Amino acid sequence: MQDKILLGFLMDGEKTGYEIKKLMENSTSFFFNTSLGSIYPAFGKLEKMGYVKMDQVIGDGRVKKRYSITQEGRKHFREWLAENVSLSKIRDDVLLKMFFFSELSVEKRCEQICSYIDQLKKQADTLTALKEKLMQYDVDKYMLKTLDYGIDYYLFTHDWYKRLLETLEDEK
Amino acid sequence: MQDKILLGFLMDGEKTGYEIKKLMENSTSFFFNTSLGSIYPAFGKLEKMGYVKMDQVIGDGRVKKRYSITQEGRKHFREWLAENVSLSKIRDDVLLKMFFFSELSVEKRCEQICSYIDQLKKQADTLTALKEKLMQYDVDKYMLKTLDYGIDYYLFTHDWYKRLLETLEDEK
DNA sequence: ACTTGCATGTAAGTCGTTACATGATTGT
DNA sequence: ACAATCATGTAACGACTTACATGCAAGT
Question: What's the half-sphere exposure (Cβ side, CA atoms, 13 Å) at B88?
Fold first, then answer.
């Protein structure tokens, strides 16, 4: 999975591991993020498989390892893109807590939901701001679409829990 | 995380690992599921920590290991429930593929989204059927709420991608 | 007789994170 | 001088999953 995202980021030009990490932070991080501690070893594997090749470059007086994608890498990535998609699980610990909400007092339930609503709103705002920023540059259409999904998802979830909170407060 | 769900399921009475697995399949599986291969070792750890205790029981002519939650276990579980919630990441491989959709032909993009829409509809229907079934019994209110979220989430995502498909088909 | 479901458990492997370790450059 | 950021990498650990291994009981 995370090897695919590395290949994906190399599709439009060579990059270092560190650069890809920075790019992720400003684009995919809300749904996909990877630590440097797994990016570097992943490049090693991709190189062994012949999907990327490395060039040692001196830039800013520093030695950097710049990776580029090979023809086989491109093929492999496009095959993965065309492969059947499947539903992934919602792995959400708020949902899990809500499942057992009967074990918690009404007050605590409200506190938890209030806090969550706050966080959802903030996340939606953060992504909206990110979108405004990115739209100033010439960013890929589908990168913006995923951002749109993110914004809409957090707004939907925000509204859902806000409605839940209203029913909770009636119970008080 | 998965130790919490085990404790949660024991809150309303003792159960075997196998029984909990079955319960999960009919309730939390759409957002949280755990294999038996991790349930059994998890019980071992919970027992060591004093959160559960085991009784060997003979039922149906079989030797079973029935676990019950201790007072410390209850305390630990309730503390976890009251702990600050935080946003979890959407780990969705469809979103990741959409991010790189420019690398795929318009036809393939539509195929992928069509297939995904289908799956989302089916999942919403499955959960709706599950809800009808559960409502016949006396199921906990918040268990049904999580199911409601699941249904609404899949419907929201279904509609979102359906709208995306319409814009994709205009491009053809 | 045979398959399915009940029931438990271990071992190997995957995938990822955090912490540790190092060191150069840039800005204050 | 000092902190922050750039840049790479490894080691330890965690949280799982799949496959393997076993065996009884119930239904067909």
Answer: 16
